[in-house]
């Protein structure tokens, strides 16, 4: 893997918490890259209009996805952040355009990823514009997501595929979709969404987390009797390993649980997960983890800049609530500075994606050491949070 990190940069990263991040430069670079991406997306859509959003670069080619892909919402959501940051109406028009293309997924009951797909773009869109049409989409998406909740198991089903592998799979990523439910309760006053989110989060604490506060990726539940059938992985190195992005999803998820509920048990969970992540011995000095903390081939395996970006963004929020604020802020700064200096695509490269060196699904030999849209989204969010700008 050709990481653009010199020994000097590594040494600098160790003391990065003492150095400020050049946010203006980082945003200018990101905006220039995204201009390139928009042009490439528009060109691709002229050929295949049903492909609505850029996901990654696969075999040297831009990979576009349809609206039902779990990553479809990150690109328009990112455009809303650019509009907020710059107040440039160009970004507003683009954000509206690409958000609209995913609107029909509010009725999709076949996925747990509606938080990513709908809340990221429509939530940001509503927050910025107060357009009630966006609010209606969010409410309907929450209704669709709620149909995947099983009260016996007490959790929201993640996947419908691979029935030969599991009966009722729930992945740690699913914590990220609970924000949609909380917002729907705020909009409607209907507490059923809130109660589903609480049940899911509580059962995830109970069944997904090991004593050291690392997380399993997939827990297979018994939907008829309740309880757990088995604990396994899909995207990690092994069932008992710590898949880096999974640890990041959990950190972010329990931080937002505390934001909405103010229940100290969620803050305690987020603190414990943060401690696990920040104390990991396999993570290099620049703060960007390998794709799985327990891959025996470390250091000769891919990093995951997406896990780092998610972690950095989550730590900035967690620092608002925790007594460990200084530690979290310093760690988030270190990660963000590394991303903004050593993991940035050269202008015009990678079809306009911002960050390099993410890992999507290594066991499936898919999206290894590539740019990917959710890495870019959480990177831009982390930059805004570094400035003290939070999207809630």
From TrEMBL:
Record bears the keyword Amino-acid biosynthesis: no
SUPFAM superfamilies in the cross-refs: Six-hairpin glycosidases
Keyword Signal: yes
GO molecular function, one term: hydrolase activity
Signal sequence bounds: 1-18
A UniProt-annotated Pfam family: Glyco_hydro_88
Family: Belongs to the glycosyl hydrolase 88 family.
InterPro entries: 6-hairpin_glycosidase_sf, 6hp_glycosidase-like_sf, Glyco_hydro_88, UG_Glycosaminoglycan_Hydrolase
Keywords linked to the UniProt accession: Hydrolase, Signal
PANTHER family tied to this protein: HYDROLASE, PUTATIVE (AFU_ORTHOLOGUE AFUA_7G05090)-RELATED (PTHR36845:SF1)
Record protein name field: Glycoside hydrolase family 88 protein
Superkingdom per UniProt: Bacteria
């Amino acid at each position: 893997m050709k990481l653009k990190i010199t020994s000097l940069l590594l040494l600098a990263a160790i003391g990065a918490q003492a150095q400020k991040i050049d946010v203006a430069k980082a945003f200018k670079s990101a905006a220039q890259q995204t201009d390139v991406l928009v042009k490439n997306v528009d060109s691709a859509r002229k050929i295949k209009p049903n492909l609505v959003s850029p996901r990654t670069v696969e075999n040297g080619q831009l990979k576009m996805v349809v609206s039902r892909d779990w990553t479809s919402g990150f690109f328009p959501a990112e455009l809303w952040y650019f509009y907020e940051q710059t107040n440039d109406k160009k970004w507003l028009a683009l954000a509206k355009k690409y958000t609209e293309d995913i609107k029909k997924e509010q009725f999709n009951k076949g996925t747990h990823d509606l938080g990513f797909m709908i809340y990221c773009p429509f939530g940001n869109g509503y927050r910025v514009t107060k357009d009630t049409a966006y609010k209606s989409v969010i409410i309907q998406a929450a209704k669709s997501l709620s149909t995947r909740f099983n009260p016996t198991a007490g959790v929201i089903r993640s996947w419908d595929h691979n029935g030969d592998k599991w009966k009722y799979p729930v992945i740690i990523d699913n914590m990220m979709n609970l924000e949609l439910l909380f917002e729907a309760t705020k909009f409607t006053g209907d507490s059923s969404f809130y109660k589903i989110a609480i049940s899911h989060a509580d059962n995830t604490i109970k069944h997904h987390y090991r004593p050291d506060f690392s997380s399993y990726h997939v827990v297979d539940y018994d939907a008829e009797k309740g309880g757990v059938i088995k604990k396994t992985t899909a995207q990690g190195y092994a069932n008992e390993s710590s898949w880096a992005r999974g640890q990041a999803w959990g950190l972010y998820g329990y931080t937002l649980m505390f934001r909405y509920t103010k229940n100290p048990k969620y803050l305690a969970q987020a603190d414990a997960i943060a401690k696990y992540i920040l104390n990991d011995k396999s993570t290099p000095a620049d703060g960007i983890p390998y794709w799985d903390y327990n891959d025996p081939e470390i250091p000769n395996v891919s990093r995951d800049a997406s896990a780092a970006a998610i972690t950095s963004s989550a730590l900035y929020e967690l620092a608002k609530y925790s007594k460990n604020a200084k530690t979290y802020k310093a760690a988030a700064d270190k990660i963000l500075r590394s991303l903004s200096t050593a993991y940035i695509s050269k202008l015009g490269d990678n079809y306009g994606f911002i960050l390099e060196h993410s890992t999507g699904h290594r066991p499936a030999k898919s999206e290894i050491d590539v740019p990917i849209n959710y890495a870019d989204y959480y990177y831009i969010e982390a930059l805004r949070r570094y400035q003290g700008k939070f999207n809630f």
